[in-house]
Amino acid sequence: MSRFKHGWWLLALAIFIAYPLVETNPAYTTIGIFTLIFMACATSWNMFSGYSGYVNLGSAVFYGSGAYTMALFANHLHMAGNGDLFWLVPLGGVVASIIAIPVGLVALRVRRHTFVVITIAIFFVFQLSAINFSFTGGTSGMQLPFIPWFITNYNVPFYYVALGIVVFAALLSAVVRRSRFGLQLLAIRDDEDRAAGLGVRVFAVKLTGFALSAFAVGMGGALYAMFIGQIYPQFVFDPIFDISIALMAIFGGLGTFIGPLLGALVLESTQQLLTLKYSNGSLYLIIFGGVFLIVILFMPQGVVVAIRDAWARRAARRDGRVTVGATVNPGATS
Amino acid sequence: MTNLLKVEGVTRAFGGLQALSGCSLSVEKGSIAGLIGPNGSGKTTLFNVITGYVKPDAGTVTFDGRDITSARPSQVFTLGVGRTFQITRIFARITVLENMLVASQRQEGWLRGLTRSKSSTQEVAAAMEWLDFVGIARLASLQAGALSFGQRKLLELAYVLVADPDVILLDEPAGGVNLTLINEIAEKIRSLNKEGKTFLIVEHNMEFVMQICDAVTVMHQGVDLVSGTPEEIRNNPDVLDAYLGGPDDDDVDVAS
Amino acid sequence: MNGTALIHSIIDGILTGSVYALMATGLTLIFGVMNIINVAQGIFVILGAYLSYALSVHFGIDLFVGLAITIPTLFLVGIVVERVFLSRIKGPEKVVMSILVTYAISLVIEGILNMVFSVNYVELQAWYVDRSVRVFGYWLPYIYLLGFALAVVLLGALYFMLYRTRFGASVRASLADQTSAALVGINVKNVSTICFGIGIAVTAAGGMIYGATNAFNASSSYDLISRLLVIIVLGGMGSIGGALAAGVFMITVEDMVSVIWGPVWSSLTFFLILVIILSVRPQGIFGKLEARLA
Q1: Looking at the 3D structure of chain B, how many domains does it have?
Q2: Range of the domain at B143
Q3: I need a surface site. Which of A96, A212, C14, C288 has the fewest CB within 10 A?
Q4: Which of A189, A269, A284, A257 is nearest to A42 (CA)?
Q5: Does residue B33 sit in the same domain as residue B99?
């Protein structure tokens, strides 16, 4: 990565840091917080599913686990409603990663398309457990300590913690992508048995990737719980969350570094804005589904790769060279 | 001479189909061994058993004095047994060089993979050297899926070699490639053998086998029929019977 | 809990399970022939239910008579969806892409249904929906018996189509091996399109029975599709016999759990069974091990 490119990342980060200073309307900073949480989750999801090809449609298991970790610890430790609760956010990540290990031990034994289905089944096991057991508060969910911050500033600390989670997830994804471990995940995606025959401990690698990817999602869930102050099982263990994360990553570009960040940024903020302006969920479903259909059928590698391909072709035309099929590799991009 | 790889009485059935029924085989250190037999005689299944992809119902596999019968594919490779597949398998969506790097660390723990970068300077140098050896170094930065059939075969050979295995199992290295490339591959095998590499080769191209192998084993209906020098095999009447009279012409090598 | 209640739950399970088996058969047929996991199957069931609802409420057409309209309608919808969207999915990640494409289709249909019918729960009405008949000492709702009969008739028709017709032979060949089927001159593309149509058409019948036995809205599709997916995975993906057996088995077990431990645990058990079975047998109860080596 060139220094020039680092500059763009820093600029993007600066814009994100500046946003709540410029935009003080709580309605819009709330949108910012949700967008950031989804950016972190989509990036983290991609770090495993995008690189390895094992599409996890149960990531709400981690999100919900993080949220319940926040609620349970805050209540049982009788914590006060103040900034100390933020310490429980990384704990949510730890719990999510720990939960990912037994889940992965079961789910990763099966091949890819069965994996998709079993992650959905495991998701429902978690959701229904949260509804049925009493320590989770059942359908009425759990209340968190009330945080008595003034309304105009309430969002700001949450926003920056969310931004921190995004930076964490993005750095982790970048480190994995440049490590031997990341290369092994890509090899598993392309041909798992062959990778095993070249010394890659495929199960251990998959399980590690799965557990790592749970961390930021768990933190996102914990932060969400603290931010909203009240959790319900059907909202933190939400099937729409499972699929939204995957759609955002694929919309941007499966297996690319920037794709999930961009996908979540565009789709989540649009959804939030539409909800704010029109409060029509059904219209959103139609637009979201429609846009996604177009993207996946006409730009199956995601928007990022499609744009880069188009750019490369344009540059090549300008230089008068002949393009060789525009074989841009989704996996090898950073 | 010592036996580097030894298979004893290996049996394996898939459902009602007896793919291997008490097959034995040994490969001497430093030799090029050939494995021939009609389609469906169990050659590929035997390869799968040796490399840990298929667990045998009975029998043992020993490599360099160690029992590897129940080892997993990654362990078998780590110990020093590399293989290629009948249908060439490469990692299509990463580059040729990255394909090489997947195989470069034979003895490294999986956690180490997280903390180290994708490649070291030495690893890249070694990878490029082997790519150069098989003659596709100029394609290193290309996506592997863009390679031609022959180039894929060469890449598969190269990435097995980069990990420096002691014995290399080749499943039909001459299958589906043109004569020039066949000769080239034979040449590579010979020169590697001179440097001390041991080979076990499944091949249908008799000329190829007879030309480069020191010892040949003929398989028929899941057992080793005869073993001997190419000359002995050529003149053995049982071998001809096996090829002409066998009722099993279906390819049942694929484990399904 | 007593013995009678348990036997009753088994009977109920078999009767309603057959309807799930019918819907799952469509799903597994689509997977087997096309390598597509149709996540939209759930919303198509709901679409079928809403079509029956509209016909009965606005035109006074009986639910079963309405099937003469809804089944062909959904067959056509299936054909169009396959031709416009699914036939475009190609490449190494076809299965995964198919999940996402059908999910997107599902979202669009969900949005439309929400707009047209609102999100309030509705239930199909007819004289046989809430009356029961006494059979061998057990009170059974007419709709369960009729649903069972409908499932048996349609599965019989499907069986006849698969095993007694020339088209069925092509389908079975494609189920076994698409490449070989293409090699012997079967037009796999057309077989795929028609199979998708059939796979969706059965949801019209499934949806009508579902709508008559459950209050539903568009988001009921999530619960449905997850159950159907569990059933086809347990049955071994692509195996029609497996889907039938697993459908009846799972719904029966769910009904029994509901009687023994209470309804809140029945859904949990349903998904837990899949998790437990797959951790012991990754290929499902009835499935063959996936080919590992080429």
Answers
A1: 2
A2: 89-163
A3: C288
A4: A257
A5: no
